[in-house]
Amino acid sequence: MVAEKTSQTPPPIPPPIAKAKHIVKPAEPTPEHAMYLSGCDQIAAVTHTPTVYFYRPTTTSLSEASQILRDSLSKALVIFYPIAGRVRWAEKGRVELHCNGEGVLVVEAESEATIEDYGDFIPTPEIRALIPTIDLTITPINELPLCVFQITKFRCGGICVGMGISHSVGDGQSCLHFIGEWTKIARGEELEAINKPYVDRSILQQVETLAEPIFQHPEFESPPLLIGKDDNLEERKKPTTVTMLKITKEQVEHLKNIANEDKPADDARGYSRFDGLGGHIWRSACKARGLKHEQQTRLDVPADIRYRLNPPLPKKYFGNTIVRAAAFATVGDLLTKPLSYAASRLRGTAENLTDEYIKSYLAFIKNVPDVSKYRNFHTVGCALGGFYGNPNMESTSWMGLPMYGADFGWGKEIHMGPGAVGFDGKFFVLPTRDGDGSFNVLIRLQVEHMDAFKKFFYEDM
Question: Where are the transmembrane segments (predicted)?
Answer without folding.
Answer: none
